What we know:
The chain is α+β, with helices and mostly antiparallel strands and 545 residues long. 25% of the residues lie in helices and 23% in strands. The protein has 14 helices and 19 strands.
Amino acid sequence: xxxxxxxxxxxxxxxxxxxxxxxxxxxxxxxxxxxxxxxxxxxxxxxxxxxxxxxxxxxxxxxxxxxxxxxxxxxxxxxxxxxxxxxxxxxxxxxxxxxxxxxxxxxxxxxxxxxxxxxxxxxxxxxxxxxxxxxxxxxxxxxxxxxxxxxxxxxxxxxxxxxxxxxxxxxxxxxxxxxxxxxxxxxxxxxxxxxxxxxxxxxxxxxxxxxxxxxxxxxxxxxxxxxxxxxxxxxxxxxxxxxxxxxxxxxxxxxxxxxxxxxxxxxxxxxxxxxxxxxxxxxxxxxxxxxxxxxxxxxxxxxxxxxxxxxxxxxxxxxxxxxxxxxxxxxxxxxxxxxxxxxxxxxxxxxxxxxxxxxxxxxxxxxxxxxxxxxxxxxxxxxxxxxxxxxxxxxxxxxxxxxxxxxxxxxxxxxxxxxxxxxxxxxxxxxxxxxxxxxxxxxxxxxxxxxxxxxxxxxxxxxxxxxxxxxxxxxxxxxxxxxxxxxxxxxxxxxxxxxxxxxxxxxxxxxxxxxxxxxxxxxxxxxxxxxxxxxxxxxxxxxxx
Length: 545
C-alpha cells in the first residue's frame, strides 16, 4: 500500500481492540473540501435497500455500525475490526450468541439517545421489515445466519445465530447493518430521494456527517453537501477532519480530469482512466494515492426461459472467447490483473479455475466447436446484446465492452455478432431488475474481505436475486451453506474448490479482471486512506493550506 501523508503522524492507540488516528498538525486553514466523481448512488441512501458502491459510501458518512474496519487495514482480517457504536463484544463458546456492549451518550440529530432498541429496530427493519430481494440483507443472506436480535438492556444487545458463522463479525461491518433513526425510517418501506428535503431523503444520523443538501436529475446524482455532525460519537477524536464536504458529479472522466487539473476540485475519485491517472500523477501540485484492491468485473448471462443464454453451452462458448490478457494490456495498461475466479487473486481459497477447468482463457477452439454443434454459421450467426454502463461507475466500461465484442467475435470466426448497448448506472440497475438484458458487465466492491463475499451473493439462489440472472442450483446452494457454516480451514477449502469448479460447469457468470483504487488530489490535501476494503472515508482527508 502507498501510505503517503503530508505533515501527519499516525499514532495507533489501543484500548482493548480499539484504534484511532491522532492528528498532530495545526488546524486546517480552510473548512471545506470539494470532491469530484463520475459516480452516483444507484437508488438511494437507505441501508435496508442500497446495494451499490456509492450509495454505501454515503451511508458510511451519514451513519455508523456497531463495528468497522480499521482505516489502513492491509488484509481485512478480523483483528482489524474495531469498535464503533459498540465498545466491546464477546461470543459464546458454541459461537451461536454474540453480545455487543454499546456506547453511552450517543445522540441522534433530534436529541434522542441511541440505545439497544435502535440496534434491533435497524437490523430487523432491513432483514425482515423491508425484505427486498434487491437489498444487501437478502444478497448477503443475513436471514439464514441471524435467528434473532434481542435487547438485553439499554446498552446491551445480543445476536443469536442459527449456526456458527466464521465471518459474522465481518458482516457486521457492512453498511446495510448501519443504524437508522426510527423517526426517519418507517419499518415497512424504503426511504428514497426527496427533492429539496435532504433530511427526509436518508434515514441515518449517527455518522461523522449530516446531509445538508442532495440534488439529482433523472435519477442520477448531481451534488451532495455534507456538514460535520456535532453529535458524532467520535467527534472528541477530531473527526471528521474537515467540516464541510462538497461532492460534485461530473458527466465523464474527461470533465473530471479537467476539473482536477484546473483546481476546481480538491480530490478526484472514481473514475479516471488509466491514461488520465498516469498523466495527472506527474503534474505539479497534484499527487496520486493508490492501493491494489479486490474490485472485480465479470460478465453475467441472463438464464431466464426465452433468453438465448438459458443454454449452458452457449454461455460456455462466450466464456471461452474472453481474452483477459487483451483486456488487461489494452484497456488497463497493465494496472489490472487477469482474474479466473470470482474469488480475487491473493484471497484465501482462490483458484484459477476458469483457466484450468473447462473455461480456459480465449479458448477459441471450444467456442467454434460449440457454435458448430448448435448450427451457427456465418450466414446464421449467434447474435446477442451486451450491456455496459456509461456514467463512470466502473472504470473504462466502454473500452472494456469494445474489447469484449472484438475478442468474442474474433473467436467465433464471424459466427457471432455482439450488439453493444450503453446505459447510465441508474438505468443499468433498472434494466437489471426488469431482466431485459441478454448479457451485462457488472462489478463487485467487497462488502467484507472474505471469500464468502465473492461466492454467496452470486451463486446461491437466496443471495443472487439482486442480479436477476435466474441462476439456481440446489447442489451449489448446499455446498455454499457448507462453506459458510464450516469453521475449519480444510473443510472450507474443499467446499470452495468444489464451488469454483462448478461455477465453470454451470457458467452463470465469467470473472474477467481485478483492479485497485486510485485518487488524484492536490498536494495541499492530506489524510487520504485507501486500503483493501476499498472504502472511501470522507471524514479522514483535510486541507493543509
